[in-house]
Amino acid sequence: MPAAAPALDQLQHHLHTTRLLGSISSTLYYDQNTVMPAAGAAWRGEQLALLAAQLHERQSSAAYADLVAAAEAELTADAPPQRRRNLQLLRLELDRQCCLDPALVSALARAQSHGNAVWQQARAANDFSAFAPALRQLIALRREQAGQLAAAEPVARSPWEILAQPFEPDISKARLQELFAPLAAQLPGLLEQVAAAPAPSPTQAFDLPEALQESLCSELLDGWGYDGRRCQRSRSAHPFSCTVGPEDFRITTRVVRGQPLSAFLATAHEWGHSLYEQGLPRSDDHFFPWPLGEATSMGVHESQSLFWECRVARSRAFAERWHPRFRQGLGSDPWGGVQGFWRSFNPLRPGLIRVEADELSYSLHIVLRFELELALLEQELPVEELPGQWNRRFKDLLGLVPPSDAEGCLQDIHWAEGLFGYFPSYALGHLISAQISEALEQQIGPIEALVRAGQESALQEWLARSVWPLGRSVNAEQLVEQVTGRPLSSEAFLTYLRAKVGQLAEGA
Amino acid sequence: MPAAAPALDQLQHHLHTTRLLGSISSTLYYDQNTVMPAAGAAWRGEQLALLAAQLHERQSSAAYADLVAAAEAELTADAPPQRRRNLQLLRLELDRQCCLDPALVSALARAQSHGNAVWQQARAANDFSAFAPALRQLIALRREQAGQLAAAEPVARSPWEILAQPFEPDISKARLQELFAPLAAQLPGLLEQVAAAPAPSPTQAFDLPEALQESLCSELLDGWGYDGRRCQRSRSAHPFSCTVGPEDFRITTRVVRGQPLSAFLATAHEWGHSLYEQGLPRSDDHFFPWPLGEATSMGVHESQSLFWECRVARSRAFAERWHPRFRQGLGSDPWGGVQGFWRSFNPLRPGLIRVEADELSYSLHIVLRFELELALLEQELPVEELPGQWNRRFKDLLGLVPPSDAEGCLQDIHWAEGLFGYFPSYALGHLISAQISEALEQQIGPIEALVRAGQESALQEWLARSVWPLGRSVNAEQLVEQVTGRPLSSEAFLTYLRAKVGQLAEGA
Q1: Is A25 part of any domain?
Q2: Does B240 map to a domain?
Q3: What CA–CA distance (Å, rounded) separates B508 from B504?
Q4: Neighboring chain A residues of B248 at a CB cutoff of 8 Å
């Protein structure tokens, strides 16, 4: 820091401590989900609440607001644009924190905890009516929150848009509708085309031994630059990626009985998240505690995990390379050759459950949720009509009718915690990954060819150069435009899917 | 809490938060030693320092001092003795914190960190002279610390005694000399007696496969009440036990190549520590954040781990029960029968290294260190004479001369961090365990018979009733007197060892 910016120095010190506290929280979260015994949950909840209170205080106190204002006052006309951007992002977040009535924050925290508990029971009992009152309350509180936050928004935004900002900065409903309309129009047709082809082999259920799955995951990571000095892989009930310090990256996976490829693909996915985190500009002291050292959006984050999961691990070339290893490990070939093996990575069959969906149907699950969130938050859809609306639209988009609400509108945890505005990021991840992949291929050649040659390191180097260091210097759409030279659209993703559907049909 | 004690309520709230922060620190420590990648160390150091600063602030601030004083003012003549004792212990700790010059605290923290780093190199290079300046500085700082703390001591204490208080409250040099003199007098003779007998079998080196050692450790814990809902066992470089929350207990072990029983015995040892922690009065809200909910001394803590390691796992009856399982797991019997198997748990041969010592020689390692600490801190022994003094006394006590300082006075980490006053607790653990065992046997019968019948649960129940719930209501010596009806002495331990030496010689 230049000596002429003492407030900036103090602000950096403040942010550094905030980051330390946040990363302590992440460590507790990691411990909780990997090794903590069940009875430790209540105490862990108290520990996390204590840290959350400290974090909130640090991010909304008058002393902090003074620091931000003093650093803004130090900004000269010739200040580096990165500094200006850092302060803008801090200012926006501070203004948002300050808009919120603390009573509402507490009420929301209680409603989320209550919503989660009620949802667990309602889903287990397949009883939407037991969950409806909690959902109604969460919607009301979130609308109230959006109303309070509106004062801090730099442009006019609808309630849903305001709630989506933390996940996808600067996103609008109109833009999402524009991006999603081609998906809703074209994906059902592609699904029908696939449905006409024979089902993927093997048709009989089989499994890979747990120890073999563990070995395969380790080999995958070893080939993709996993460094045990900076990284740790553990087991957890649900796979996740988690950054615990500037040189401390964790991922977790799980072995799912009856789903022989689940752990392998989840490892690829979570490692993609982690690579992005590892590539963010955090080693430079100027960046690490500042906003520019952070991921720019959940959509971009997801694009990085989906790149490694879908573009690489589900590619034909990757299947060619790994088929011998899987066959040798298992001692047999239930896939009947490499094409069958590849197709087992790409079932392309619509199903009821979002988290089990493949590339072709996944986005339709998201379109459905996006439309319903808008209906609930902005179009006065009565909560009790949610199951009917869900089932009707699900039939339209995916051709299936959920036999129960547990497999329908009760399947996700997000709404149970009042998390509205998050789902679209998952689909944006697919679009961004596809468009970035096109740019990558124009510059360094086809992904299939690089993967066939075992040169995933070239893919990493390109991402490390082109995508990861951008941090929050740009938002998601700006990032795509900067990297690909074109505005984000659904075209690259649809082109990719059409090609894949054709390729999979060959030799079926 | 009664409504008539509002300051006490506030104080409890304060202590509760302090305990939350301390347990967050423990979680980070656990993570650091089990899964954290090496590169995470620097950031973890910053996280721990932040928490340490917060803890120090909470334990020494004027606001906290006011709370303690207000709670003391609320104490009426008929207040429960437990409340009085809690406040006395808090007052003593607060007075000690307040005596210390913050500049000294910082200087000590730096010297400890420096001492540790220098010691690592000096030990690796077997170069005591490289470590001597750091040790000299640590001694000077610790003497200064003892000088500052003297003002808070309720009775006159020597510098070494003051430094030993955190580990062994109320201990004195004279008392330790009284307790240790019979050990120094009688153990060498016992060692000579054993040396005359043939060496324990198997004479050839062998090992147990890692997976078998893991299974044996799990089975051991399952038989000793390990509850996966409240406990977690992990791997770490050095075994330890760690309490992370009132219902969250962790232990770690390691498999040591070439030492087939190391993991098994370490599991027994660490589980003993954990059982004591689990049995402390922490489930009752009145106790958990208060001093009475804590372990009363390191010596008592060690007595609980040594009880399960030495009195149970190294007993003849235990060997009889487990020999078939070890033999079956290994597919052979390198011990040549149960007596050989039992003797492999009890080598009783003097060695150079404390942490590898058996029951017979362990205390002599401690006597040596205790004497040298007194010489360094209170008798002006020049630091450069430490190696010579070490080797001369080692020969007197254990009959061996260390071939290098790395295997002599450089072997332990304690002095490298200026930790003086800690070692005696290890030997006290043996004495306390032996004397408590005598009382237990008078009340519920011989340990050997109970172990032979697989009734370790009876041992646990007795300890859970007689020892663990005492917390810090009494100090270590008071605990022993309360549980056994006699003042602590070395007699029970020496009686036990004499019997064991005789038993081991049978059928040799």
Answers
A1: no
A2: yes
A3: 7
A4: 36-37, 39-40, 43-44
Q: Which of B74, B161, B168, B270 is catalytic?
A: B270
B417 is catalytic: no
B46 vs A20, A39, A234: nearest CB = A20
Domain that includes residue B58, residue range? 6-99
- Angular region, B88: left φ>0, alpha ψ -120 to 50, beta rest: alpha
Burial of B425 from C-beta contacts in 10 A (0-12 / 13-18 / 19+):
buried
Task: Considering only the beta carbons, identify the residue of B40, B245, B246 that sits closest to A247.
Answer: B40
- DSSP state letter for B110: H
Angle at alpha carbon of residue A52, lines to A47 and A56, rounded to 5° = 155
Helix residue ranges per DSSP H, B166-261:
173-196, 210-223
Assess A73–B contact: CB distance below 8 Å, yes or no.
Answer: no
pLDDT in tens, chain B (508 residues): 444 679 999 999 999 999 999 999 999 999 998 999 989 988 998 999 899 999 999 999 999 999 999 999 999 999 989 999 999 999 999 999 999 998 998 899 889 888 988 998 999 999 999 999 999 999 999 999 999 999 999 999 999 999 999 999 999 999 999 999 999 999 999 999 988 877 666 666 789 999 999 999 999 999 999 999 999 999 988 899 999 999 999 999 999 998 999 999 999 999 999 999 999 987 665 678 899 999 999 999 999 999 999 999 999 999 999 999 999 999 999 999 999 999 999 988 899 999 889 999 999 999 999 999 999 999 999 999 999 999 999 999 999 999 999 999 999 999 998 999 999 999 999 999 999 999 999 999 999 999 999 999 999 999 999 999 999 999 999 999 999 999 999 999 999 999 999 998 886 5
Q: Are both B314 and B460 inside the same structural domain?
A: yes
Contact A37 B228 (CB under 8 A): yes
Q: How many domains does chain A have?
A: 1
Q: Distance (Å) from the C-alpha of residue A229 to the closest C-alpha of chain B?
A: 5
Nearest CA to B252 out of B28, B23, B34, B32 is that of B34
B31 touches chain A (CB under 8 A): yes
CATH code: domain of residue A404: 1.10.1370.30
Chain A neighbors of B288, CB-CB under 8 A: none
